Amino acid sequence: MDSALKAFWKIGYHVVSMGDLVRETGVSRAGIYSDFNGKEDLFHACLDRYQETVVTPAFAPVEAEGADIDSIETYLNNLLTRFEKSGGFGVGCLVGNTLTQIPEDAVETRQKLRAHCDRLTAGFHKVLTHESDDHGLLTPAEIGELARYTMISVQGIWSYSRLTEDVAELRAASDMLIRVLKSQLRGAPR
User: Whole-prediction pTM value?
Assistant: First the structure.
């Protein structure tokens, strides 16, 4: 499962072939089909595994009880540090990478990708609500919009990590996002 996950993440859902999966996993085509109904079924299992092994630990600061904007900053910094340690040119986010490839008729896959985006949005929403309760500058609707904006911004940063090896570019985008959030929620200068 982990080898298949890495293949989908690195190569891309639509580009990876069953031959690639056989080579990357060391499992025969018949072995893959004995456990999964095909590439899409295996990919869905890998998306679930990605949530469990990558997203849950990485997103823990945001989903922690009492999380605040500093928790979002910690989450971003942790991922940027991982990018830096890998020598640049990140693999991006499996979900973000797949969002650009998925056809409209892949309903179940789209639902799984939506669930990921909804999870991030909900985590950011909780943090932003907590911050807003302390400062009271935003309406619930504005908090919802800001949470969605934060999720889209984060997905964009990780997508861009596939294009650049310069962590400073990614840090600048991350820092700008945090400044925007603080300005919106705390009334801090932009």
Answer: 0.90
